[in-house]
Amino acid sequence: MNDVQLSGRIVERAALRYTPAGLPALDIRLTHACELMHAGAPRKVSLEMHATAIGDLALDLARVPVGDEIDIRGFLGKQRNGKGVMLHISAFVPSSQSPNSN
């Protein structure tokens, strides 16, 4: 199974582009930080990750300001250049609108 759920802050957004098939596409860079239990002890976790959205999701994501938190659902795949991992977004919601936010 390849199903990822992640909350993160948008720290960079590339210009909206179009795929060869004519679909809108948008690449972003996210940061995430939290504390989790790992092997019975708390562990601080932080990361930066590239993510991409295609189609209507790309257009919706383009309206979210850099600096905002979002909750994402998607899957992991290769980056377009074949180096590294990319989070392919299948759904997102601003964290302020998430049912899990306080």
Could you give a short description of this structure?
It contains 1 helix and 6 strands. The protein is mainly β. It has a single domain (4-97), classed as Nucleic acid-binding proteins (OB fold (Dihydrolipoamide Acetyltransferase, E2P), Beta Barrel).
How are the SSEs placed, and which strands pair?
Blueprint (H helix, E strand, L loop, with lengths): L3 E10 L3 E2 L5 E15 L2 E14 L1 H7 L6 E10 L6 E10 L8
Parallel strand pairs: 4-6
Antiparallel strand pairs: 1-3, 1-5, 2-3, 3-4, 5-6
Question: What report would you give on this structure?
Answer:
It comes from Sphaerotilus mobilis. Keywords: DNA replication, DNA-binding, Primosome. GO terms for molecular function: single-stranded DNA binding. One of its GO terms (cellular component) is primosome complex. One of its GO terms (biological process) is DNA replication, synthesis of primer. It is built from one helix and six strands, in the order ββββαββ. The model has no long low-confidence stretch (mean pLDDT 93). The chain has a five-stranded mixed barrel with strand order 1-3-4-6-5. A hairpin with a 5-residue loop joins β2 (17-18) and β3 (24-38). It is 7% helix and 60% strand. It is globular. By secondary structure, it is mainly beta. It has a single domain, classed as OB fold (Dihydrolipoamide Acetyltransferase, E2P).
